[in-house]
Design goal:
Length: about 90
Amino acid sequence: MRSKSLALSGWGRFPQTKTAAFRPERMSEVAACLKSDGTMLARGAGRSYGDQALNSAGAVLLTERLDRFLGLETGDAPLLTVEAGVSWGRSSAC
Ligand SMILES: Cc1cc2nc3c(=O)[nH]c(=O)nc-3n(C[C@H](O)[C@H](O)[C@H](O)COP(=O)(O)OP(=O)(O)OC[C@H]3O[C@@H](n4cnc5c(N)ncnc54)[C@H](O)[C@@H]3O)c2cc1C
């Protein structure tokens, strides 16, 4: 899978770092992203304030398109299993 160079920052908009970014559409594509050289950092919604979701020394894995609900176990303690890119904000619009 090919990466794209993106200028990323956290919620605080500082610092901003140009980073090789992978944006897999499916979990099956994640393994190919991990074969790239250097370190890889997962990035969720990018809402942390500082540089927690930046990786100037390597690449980031954007999880936003991994946004599927995988399963729901009902019962006394219901359990919803989702992919890493699910956000409650986007899901509540469904
Ligand atoms: C307006 C606002 C209000 C907030 N209020 C609160 C609050 O009330 N309470 C609170 O606790 N926090 C709060 N936060 C902080 C926010 O919840 C955290 O920073 C949270 O980590 C953001 O999630 P994210 O998915 O955007 O993470 P990102 O910023 O994308 O990533 C944060 C860290 O998590 C790692 N990470 C992300 N996804 C994965 C993954 N799938 N696997 C492994 N590691 C991963 C990243 O590598 C990075 O190190 C607030 C933030 C904002 C902007």
